[in-house]
Design a protein that fits this description.
Layout: E1 8-11, E2 26-34, H1 40-50, H2 58-68, H3 83-88, E3 95-100, E4 104-110, H4 118-125, E5 130-136, H5 143-154, E6 160-165, H6 174-190, E7 197-200, H7 224-230, E8 244-251, E9 260-265, E10 270-272, E11 276-280, E12 285-292, E13 301-303, E14 307-312, E15 323-326, E16 333-344, E17 356-360, E18 363-377, E19 383-384, E20 393-407, E21 418-423, E22 426-437, H8 442-454, H9 462-469, E23 474-480, H10 486-499, E24 504-508, H11 509-513, H12 518-522, H13 529-545, E25 549-555, H14 559-568, E26 574-579, E27 591-593, H15 599-609
Parallel strand pairs: 2-4, 2-5, 5-6, 6-7, 23-25, 23-26, 24-25, 26-27
Antiparallel strand pairs: 1-3, 3-4, 8-9, 8-15, 9-14, 10-13, 11-12, 11-15, 12-14, 16-20, 16-22, 17-18, 17-21, 18-19, 18-20, 21-22
Amino acid sequence: MKERFVGMIEKGAAYPANKRDLIHKQDMNIVIVGHVDHGKSTVIGRLLADTDSLPEGKLEQVRETCRRNSKPFEYAFLLDALKDEQAQGITIDVARCFFQTELRNYIIIDAPGHIEFLKNMITGAARAEAALLVIDAHEGVQENSRRHGYMLSMLGIHQVSVLVNKMDLVEYNERVFRRIERQYRKFLKKINVEPTCFIPISAMEGENIANHSVKMPWYEGMNVLQVLDSFKKETSQQNKPFRMPVQDVYKFTMNGDNRRIIAGTIETGKISVGDEVVFFPSGKRTTVKSLEAFNREPQIEIGAGWTCGFTVKEQIYIKRGEMACLVKEPQPKVTGRLLVNLFWLGKKPLVKGKDYFLKLGTAKVTMQLEDVRSVMDASSLDNMKKEQVDRHEVAECVLSLDRHIAFDLISEIAATSRFVIVDEYEICGGGIVMQEMEDHTSWVRDKVLLRNFKWVGSDISNELRAEKYNQKPALILITGEKASPRKDIARVVERQLFDAGRYVYYLGIGGLMYGLDSDIIMNMVPLNRREHIRRLAEVAHIMLDSGMILIVSAVELDASDLDVIKTSVPAELISVVWVGKTPKTDIPVNIFLSEEDKIEDSAQVIREQLNL
C-alpha cells in the first residue's frame, strides 16, 4: 500500500506547508547528489508525486505549462522551478522539499550535479545527515559520481544509499545493475564509505520509488522510501558541547536600556541563565544573566538551531568571530595553524605566498598555504605531490593564519570544523579541519588563555572608560633602526596628546627590561627576546584595559614580535610606525617616517594619520 505524505516543495523554503503535523516527529536532512542528467530531480519529483505530497493542483499545473510550451513533461520540473534552469535542463540552485513518513519529517536537499556548481552541492551536503547518490544505469559511473562520493565522505556523511536510475533504458537488466554496484562499491571502500544499499530504480516510470517494482523481481531489497526510514538519526545536536559563534554584540542606550547583547546562532548544545560561559580564542569568561529574543517570551534555556542573544553579569570585551562555549564542557581547539582536507574550486590554483581569507563560523582571518602534504584526484583517488592545488582537486594541506581562531575537529563537532576559503571576493574552496597544529605563538597563547580565564574584570566597562576619557585605547609601536629618533618622536607624541587632554603614557623598552624583566637581566639568563616581548604585551594589555593610549619605542620589531603582541592585545588597537629608511624587518607598517624630518612634524603626522 502506498504511504501517504504531507509536504511541499519550493526554492529556499524554510517551513513545510503542514507545519503542525511535523512538530512531534524526528527531523532528518537528506541530500541527493549525482552527475548532471542522472536524474536526481526526477527522483524527488516522482517521489513526491507518487506519495501525494504535492500541493493540490501542482502536478497538473506543471503538465499544463509543458503542454502550452510544447515541451515534454518531466518530473524534474516540479523542482527545477527557475526559468534558466528549465531552459538549460540542469539544477543550479539547491532546492529543498519537505514531507513526512510515520517515522520522521524529512527535508530532501537537491544539490547540483554539474561540475561548475560544486560549490552549491557542498553547501547542500554540509547540512545533511545522510545521502542518496544517483547514477545513470545507461551512462554508468562518471567522474562526478566519484567526485561527489568523495566529497560526501570528506564532509563526514557516511550514510549513503546509491540509486541506479534509468533502469528502463537498459531493459531492467540485472547484469548492468550488478556491474555498476561492483564498480562503485569498490570506489566507496577506498574512501571508507560503506553504502547502506544499492537500489535499481526508474524515476521516470516510478519503479522502486514508493513501491517495489514488478519489472525487477530479481531485486528484493528496500525501495527508496524504505531506505530513507532506515537511515540512523545523528546524535541530537543539543547533546553535544555548546558552541555559538558570535555574530555581533548589540549595545542599547535609549530609555535607560543599557543592555549589551551577545548574539549568534547556536550550532550545538544548549545554554541556560546562570551558565558560566567562556569565549575562544580570547579565553574570557563570564556568566549568563538573561536570554534575549526579539518578540518572544523570556526563556531560561535555549538549544541548537536557534538564533540566540544573551546578556552577561561581568562585562567583558567580546567581538565577532569569538566562539561562546560553556566552562564545564569540553573546549574547542585554538591555534593559528591547521591541518585540513580541502576541495579547491577556484579558477586560479591555490598557491603558496598569497593571502586568502578563511571563514570558519563567524571568524574571518587572513591565511596562507604553508604546505601541501598531498593532492588527490577526487575521481581516481590517485595521490600526487605538488606545490599547489589546482581546480577540482582535493588536498591535505597545512594552513597558516594571521591570528588564532577557535574550532573543533571534524571527528568531534562537524558544524564548527567546516570552513570556506575566499579569494578576490569569491568562495574558491572549502574543507574540514583534521588536526590543530603548534604555531610560533602557541607558547604565549596558552598563558593568555589562562590569564583571561582567571581575570577578574572591573565593573567599569570599556565603553564607559572611552566615554569618560573621550578616547579609545590604543597601542602605538614606534620602531626602526637603532640610530633612528624613535624615542624622541614617541616622547613628543606623548606630550602633544597629554596637552590635548588625552590619557597617555610612553614606555621605552629599556625601562621595561631593567624593571619588569630584571630577573632575566640580573640573573644572567640568556637573552630571551620572545619573553621580553610577551611581558611588554602583558603590560600593554593592562594599560589598554584601563582605557589609556600607550606609546612604546623599540628597536627593529619584526612580524614575529608583532604576532606575540597580537596574541595578548586585539590587533585592531595596534598601530605600527617605522622611523627611518626602508624597514629592515618584515613587520607590517601603518606609518612610515623619515629620520630626517623634524621631530615635531613626525609626531604631528602620527596624530593626524591615527586620528588622535
